[in-house]
Amino acid sequence: MILGQLAKRCSRIAYNGAAVKVRLAGAQLSLNVLTIRNFHDSDKQSLSLAQELKQDSVSGPIKDQAETTVSDQVAEYSKYMMNTYTRPPMLVDHGKGCYVYDTKGNKYLDMTAGIAVLALGHGHEGVSKVLYEQSKKLNHVSNLFFTKEVCELAKDVIEKTMSSYKEGNAGIYEDRHASFPKIFFTNSGTEAT
Q1: pLDDT tens digits, one per residue of 149-171
Q2: Is 49 within 8 Å of 13 (Cβ atoms)?
Q3: Among residues 29, 47, 48, 30, which one has the least CA distance to residue 38?
Q4: pTM across the whole model
Q5: 3-class DSSP state for residue 116?
Q6: Under 8 Å CB-to-CB from 60, ≥6 apart: which residues?
Q7: How far is CA 39 from the centre of its chain?
Q8: What is the tally of structural domains in the chain?
Q9: How would you classify residue 14: left for phi > 0, otherwise alpha for psi between -120 and 50, otherwise beta?
Q10: Torsion sign across C-alpha atoms 159, 137, 130, 117
Q11: Helix, strand, or coil here: 7?
Q12: Is 137 contained in some domain?
């Protein structure tokens, strides 16, 4: 609960690469927090929290992210990348669970993974194994076509959600509403709307 509240509050501030020290149940935890969100001076609560964390919670120096080699690489890559976001001067190299690591070995709590497909974290062995096995058969099939796995998933989701709905709504659920629901698996939120 406390960690969830901390993550919620920290995700509102822009502490790209800041070292944050947190006390949880008497234990001290130092993290590097990576977030791409920006806060505005008009958001007094976020600004106040940012100042409080900066003054009271910084746990000493972290490895220098702006070393010449990293800065040079970032500058070179920036020639080819659209500057859509203000990016921190670092190169993310790999991830494990809810953390990402830069090329210098610094560890960051990844508070941005939920924007796409990383809800299960980075480098999850079970997910990696399933992806590897599936990639030996098919990497991608448009939702224009049927595949056994997709059809079985749709059937499983419908059967489980409908049986749960019927049990939880005894007396409300009527046969006239029993038209069999169907699933459309989308590639994006645009298709879903």
Answers
A1: 999 999 999 888 887 666 665 55
A2: yes
A3: 47
A4: 0.48
A5: coil
A6: 19
A7: 19
A8: 2
A9: beta
A10: negative
A11: helix
A12: no
